[in-house]
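Let us practice reading a record.
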Amino acid sequence: YEWNAYCRLDKSFNFLLWAKENGIPRWIKNNNKYFLSFFSGYFDAEGHISITKNKDGNKCRLRCQLNSKDYQILKDAQRKLALFSIFSRLRKGKYNMWRFDICRKKDVIKFLKLLKLRHREKIMKKKLAFEAYNKTWEEIHPLLQEFKSKLKREVKESILKAKKEWEKHGGRNL
């Protein structure tokens, strides 16, 4: 069951199409508030916050990643975040994708503190990353498992709700 939404956007959103080809517009890059709003939305939609066990197995590893075909946007973001003393890597991935990576714990925390996320799942994961910063893997792993279980339950509930709505309308497109 899938929901689709379409909308016509005002011409004021044209900068998004321009950014795809040319990177982040100068008026956004030159204003920290605009940049952080822009990149918060971009990361909220396309990014990932990862909390895993580190190599020696007793601490947490934090990472923020974003995969995109929009190299110039990622490069502009990398340069701008460097001005906030946040180190990131940008490397070529598979299928013409680029991977934007923040791997150092202190940089991940600094980055997440700057972001104004809107998606509930990312907000919850952000809070969990803050908790994981000074905790051992044994302390954070149960919280992470609880988070994943809660997400799975919510997905199942959403699917059932969509199915009921679809059936209520005779199984036809709304």
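A brief commentary: Residues 56 and 137 are 10 Å apart (CA to CA).
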